[in-house]
Amino acid sequence: MTIVITLDNVNSEDVTQSAEMNGVTMQAFQLPLPSANDLPTLAVQSIHGEAVQTAQDSGLNLLPQDLPSHSSSLLSPSTSLDYPGNPESTRRASICRIKVVEDLLAVFMDSSIIHLTLKMDFVNEKAIDDAGVSREVYTAFWEQFLEQCEGETEQVPRLRPDFCEAEWQAVGRIWVKGLLDHGVMPVRLSKAFILACIHGIDSVDVDILMTSFLNYLPPVERSAVEKALQGTMEESDEEDLLDLFKRMSSHFLPPKNSMQPAIETVAHKAILQEPKYIVDCFSTPMALVQQKLSDKESVLSLYESKKATGKRVLQLFETTKMVLSQREQATFNHLQRYVKNADQTKAEKILHFCTGSSVICVDKIMVCFNAETGLNRRPVAHTCGATLEVPCTYSSYPEFRTEFDNILSSNYFEMDIL
Question: In this structure, is residue 232 part of a structural domain?
């Protein structure tokens, strides 16, 4: 079954499409269906290109002098700091969405890219990069890259036969440039691992190591480790803990009086020792952020400021009008309720829809309203300017929630002219 939304008299001056991702708006929405080759059919979207942001063109390759006080970023993409290289130089790259890791790595194999203004687009998706597309590219890269990492809530890269020093350094450059240019960083990469990359393994104390290790473990093993550290371990917990130790090349449980140092040793091996080669490769490009992330507190604070929660995302929303009509106020109340009660996964999706990134990288998301009804009614997100356009014609909160849920659950998108 295919649902198509048809728009009348659409032009570049007056756009009210159903959803805009990465600076483009969706004209037709198609649910993923099996195609002839058993691959899902992708939703097709119509383009309303982002305006070229000339101010950023001359400053994307600059570092910030001062850390902004706003919680959305410790390293603001809009402030400047001297970088070696020519600020007038611009590199353009076309990235294929289904192989974003491979394509972006090819761009960042050149170490000079870190000093250049980088503009990107997706192959066959006509959006113009005015920050929104770049945020989407970095977000898509980390989503695919982390699929090859180990761990649960926090993940750690593992050595791969197809990656050598050049590839790992390129990944490190992607982490640095995504953060400096657009405030995008993968919050699911282990905090202890990233701290080691920036300041060395010796900078990781036991508290940070154990926090990252517990977040690295799956829930069952995490519970067993916590009970072992508290001295409340039961027989079933011993079996789970033994499985963990065996996976870490230890075939027996230590005595209870030496359990804590043994677990700390296992944690050090999993989070720091095994990826030590990757840590060394990342450390070269990450030296660029050492001055501003000067200690472990600044690194942990950066992680905290980027993490999406319902309440934090809610604080970003502002209306473009000072005084709202009754219907607009009711809709804004629905939006606030929807965002406030979102868990982390949904909060990340809301952010991704509105900004192109699943971490907090903007100071605010502006909300405006329209009076669309019927098949033309749908939320519109302009990622370049972090603006959300919402119809004020919903009769109830459940109706609003259902429509927004349907937008966010549509994970298969392709931006193109219908």
Answer: no
Using an 8 Å Cβ cutoff, are 181 and 73 in contact? no
98 and 181 inside one domain: yes
Domains in the chain: how many in total?
Answer: 2
Length of the chain measured in residues: 418
What are the angstrom distances between the C-alpha of 314 and each of 128, 340, 351? 28, 6, 10
Please provide the DSSP assignment of 228-277 as one string. Answer: HHHT---HHHHHHHHHHHHHTT--SPPPGGGHHHHHHHHHHIIIIITTHH
Residues 293 and 144 grouped into a single domain: yes
Q: Which helix (H) or strand (E) holds 381?
A: strand 380-382
Residue 129 maps to a domain: yes
- On whether both 62 and 150 belong to a single domain, the answer is yes
- For residues 132 and 383, the answer to whether their CB atoms sit within 8 Å is yes
Report the DSSP pairing between strands 317-319 and 43-45: unpaired
275-317: pLDDT as tens digits: 999 999 999 999 999 999 999 999 999 999 999 999 999 999 9
CA 21 – CA 29 distance, rounded (Å): 12
Domain check: are 39 and 163 in the same one?
Answer: no
Does residue 2 fall inside a structural domain?
A: no
CA 247 from chain center: how many Å? Answer: 30
Given the DSSP bridges, would you call strands 150-151 and 155-156 parallel, antiparallel or unpaired?
A: antiparallel
What's the mean per-residue pLDDT of the chain? 79
CB-hemisphere CA count at 13 Å for 364?
7
Q: For 366-397, how does the pLDDT look when each residue is reduced to its tens digit (9 = 90+)?
A: 999 999 888 888 888 888 889 999 999 999 99
How many whole angstroms separate alpha carbon 416 and alpha carbon 27? Answer: 9
* CA 403 vs CA 335, 353, 379, 396: distances in Å: 12, 14, 8, 11
Q: What pLDDT, on a 0 to 100 scale, did the predictor assign at position 411? A: 62
Q: What is the CATH number of the domain that holds 34?
A: 3.30.2410.10
135 and 70 in a common domain: yes
Q: Residue 46: CB partners within 8 Å, gap ≥ 6?
A: 7, 10, 17, 24, 25, 26, 27, 28, 416, 417, 418
Of 262, 237, 232, 233, the residue nearest 248 (C-alpha) = 262
- Structure pTM? 0.76
Range of the domain at 150: 56-201+274-306
> Can you list the alpha helix ranges (DSSP code H) found in 70-117?
100-108
In a shared domain, residues 298 and 375: no
Any domain includes 213: no
